[in-house]
Amino acid sequence: MSAHLVRRPRRRAALGALVATGALLLTACGDQTDDDGGSGGGDGGATQDTGAEAPLHDMLPEDIQQAGVITVGSDIAYAPIEFYDENDEIAGIDPDIAAALGEVLGVEFQFENGTFDGLILGMNNGRYDVIMSAMTDTAERQQGVSEDAEGGADFVNYFQAGSAILVPAGNPEGIESPDDLCGLAVAAQQGTANEAVIEAQQERCDEPIEPIINEVDTETITALQSGRAAAAITDFPVALYNELTAGDGELFEVVGEQIDAAPYGIAVSKENTELRDALQAAVQQIIDDGTYAEILAEWDAETGAIEEATINAGE
305 partner at 20 to 30 Å CA-CA among 117, 132, 136, 258? Predict the structure, then answer.
């Protein structure tokens, strides 16, 4: 499934301060070593309501009810999905959705930074309770057969996005589709659906693509800005954010159509069905009460909205 890209105006003035964070995308600034830099930071956690004030609290496993915290593994270098803002606090679509889920579940969502392709293994080893990291729900990740999904996971679906092609402003190579990437240097993040786009296109090329695969997405954007790459493949919301904010909107543009739109999922251990079901109910509640739509509108991300919180909808 694909959809035409929608260019939206820059965020309203209330979000003007966040535009400055576009500069973060032009340097490899998100430290991907596990640290406590984002844990409990400002926008990274939900309020702690319990009992009657948190209607779904009793659905949570007893140990999480007692702890009052859900630890979230995340690669926090992926604006506008999750990133460190100019105050070094965690911001973005995922942290805002997590905060809203915390309101109805009565717990705090505490984000911890990690390398993307190690997140599922970290969760299954007990380091995190869940993962929120713009992670595409795929059958391979559910089954644990992809390289970044040892042990597998269940996914509570909460957003939808595909890949997009980001190029320098003016589109000097005239790129309009993945077919135009043949013979060019193209950057993407390791272990993501965006890397898979390059791999799939490579099989259709007479002149091979030169892949530039990076551990974090900020390095992908840096490769494009520096001229090492003629194009970058990244998630549509990330590509659009860069188009609108990087260099005050003068550096990049998104071209072509969104590629293979698919659900993002909150990853949960397959053994923790009680937590999975509580999260599904919480996502559905914030969809139904309008909070979800408000969050997406704040980030100009309405094109990724879903109407129903599903489980393992990825293919």
Answer: 117
